[in-house]
Specification:
The chain contains five helices and five strands. The protein is α/β, with parallel strands linked by helices.
């Protein structure tokens, strides 16, 4: 198990630039200074994780400790991205939190069936969103313990 998460990195998969900026600002306001990588669609997220396309030859997932994944993203939707990630032996231990506006029971059910570690509905209010991101970051990056990734 890891003892320190100070160097842990976050992948935020969000196509709405305003919501992505708000999430990043929420981490800052909660003194969570971990590096955050942003992917605007499912294909870009998978390219980042698997070192493809513009990320070819880069080993970017070594410090990745948390993936925040929206469902309604272009090219490859978040549920399909989740399904792909959790089917890979080397990625199964990276926590994936669905952070989405979808309250559809079918989306929630499928997210958990595909291996989501948590499902959070984005709060509509600014202060509520800031608070929720603070709790989320504290839990997943400080309190939760994960196993060291497999090589």
């Amino acid at each position: 198990m890891r003892d320190s998460y100070a160097d842990s990195e976050i992948l935020l998969v969000e196509d709405n630039p305003a919501e992505a900026a708000l999430a990043i600002r929420a981490f800052e306001k909660n003194q969570i200074s971990n590096p955050i990588h942003l992917a605007a669609d499912g294909e870009q997220a998978l390219d980042f994780i698997f070192g493809r396309g513009k990320f070819k030859g880069q080993n970017l997932i070594q410090k990745l400790e948390l993936i925040l994944l929206d469902i309604n993203i272009p090219i490859i939707n978040g549920l399909e991205v989740l399904k792909i990630l959790k089917s890979e032996r080397l990625l199964k231990n990276i926590p994936v939190v669905m952070l989405t506006t979808s309250e559809e029971e079918s989306d929630i059910r499928r997210a958990y069936e595909y291996g989501a570690n948590s499902y959070l509905i984005k709060p509509q209010g600014f202060h509520e969103f800031i608070d929720e991101i603070g709790i989320l970051g504290t839990y997943w990056l400080t309190l939760n313990k994960t196993v060291v990734k497999l090589d």
